[in-house]
Q: What sequence folds into this?
């Protein structure tokens, strides 16, 4: 089964599931702006909206009415992945979602191989020959849709708001990733944690970040999250990031000079540098 395209023995496509079972932590904002930012860096990117709320699709201005084919049709077996994705920007494609996707949880519950439907669709479409990155915006739950994303992915990015209770929920995410790695997808690793809604200079943000760093450093080296990095580029709380979805634009199109655009540009550069073995650089606070 072809999972990644290789050039000179090096993997050249990264498949990233952006997940957190808690809502309101910047998951969709990170999925959209990570995908859009990587595309601006010259990477060929496909954003897959796996949330029935379809916020990633709405964020990029896609009209979900008028019989638009979505990722639901792919998971239901009626359409191919290549037939439903659409180009939404230079180097950027979207596999949209709508509310129909909520039915997938029930429709696949007893289906044989239900965890592998998305991965098989990717393989059939030959995505590893067409994209440098696939970014999947997962729903805020740990059900069948998220399980399909984790089975299709090789990496997990976890957006995290630097609050005390966020650390409590992180352990559940790590447990889920470890379970999927053991049983369904040996390639899966938690490779990055994105600190969102970050308030620079506050004691709480600093303390939570320090606690997170200490936890990762003390983790079992065989754990799927052992090599995870806390990205140095924090996503600061910024009103422009909240406004951009209502205009159907990424932060780079809506407010290219904003702090949000600066932060996500830094994050994308850090993601690219990681695969090139370059030491990360953070923006000035």
A:
């Amino acid at each position: 089964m072809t999972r990644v395209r290789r050039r000179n023995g090096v993997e050249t496509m990264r498949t990233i599931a952006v997940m957190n079972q808690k809502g309101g932590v910047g998951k969709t904002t990170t999925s959209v702006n990570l995908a859009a930012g990587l595309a601006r860096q010259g990477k060929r990117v496909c954003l897959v909206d796996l949330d029935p709320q379809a916020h990633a699709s709405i964020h990029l201005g896609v009209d979900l009415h008028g019989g638009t084919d979505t990722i639901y049709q792919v998971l239901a077996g009626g359409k191919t992945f290549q037939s439903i994705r659409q180009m939404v920007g230079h180097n950027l494609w979207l596999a949209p979602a709508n509310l129909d996707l909520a039915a997938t949880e029930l429709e696949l519950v007893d289906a044989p191989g239900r965890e592998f439907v998305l991965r098989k669709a990717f393989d059939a479409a030959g995505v590893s020959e067409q994209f440098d990155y696939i970014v999947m915006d997962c729903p805020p739950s740990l059900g069948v849709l998220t399980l399909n994303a984790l089975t299709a992915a090789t990496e997990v990015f976890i957006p995290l708001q630097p609050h005390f209770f966020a650390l409590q929920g992180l352990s559940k995410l790590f447990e889920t990733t470890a379970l999927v790695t053991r049983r369904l997808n040996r390639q899966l690793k938690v490779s990055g944690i994105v600190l969102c809604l970050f308030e620079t200079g506050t004691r709480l943000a600093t303390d939570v970040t320090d606690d997170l760093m200490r936890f990762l450093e003390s983790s079992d080296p065989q754990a799927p999250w052992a090599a995870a990095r806390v990205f140095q580029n924090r996503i600061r709380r910024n009103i422009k990031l909240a406004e951009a979805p209502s205009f159907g634009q990424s932060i780079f199109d809506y407010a290219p000079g904003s702090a949000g655009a600066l932060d996500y540009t830094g994050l994308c550069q850090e993601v690219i540098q990681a695969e090139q073995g370059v030491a990360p650089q953070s923006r000035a606070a």
Observations:
- The longest helix spans residues 164-183.
- The CA atoms of residues 156 and 190 lie 5 Å apart.
- Confidence is low (pLDDT under 50) at residues 1-10, 278-285.
- DSSP finds twelve helices and ten strands in the chain.
